[in-house]
Amino acid sequence: xxxxxxxxxxxxxxxxxxxxxxxxxxxxxxxxxxxxxxxxxxxxxxxxxxxxxxxxxxxxxxxxxxxxxx
Length: 70
Prior knowledge:
Elements: H1 2-8, H2 14-22, E1 27-28, E2 36-37, E3 53-56, E4 59-62
Antiparallel strand pairs: 1-2, 3-4
Helix pairs in contact: 1-2
């Protein structure tokens, strides 16, 4: 959402936000090479799967073990 807001500019409109979201193609989120955010005019899902993540050091990292959650 932050990336879409940046792309939509200072004069935010609903249409501008939708265009900005739809302009995001294969954006690397740092979660691995197969996990790239991708939108289009027909596909607003972004990712094809639910990716469990946690925030560590201001970055999203893959969640692999409940024992690591504090």
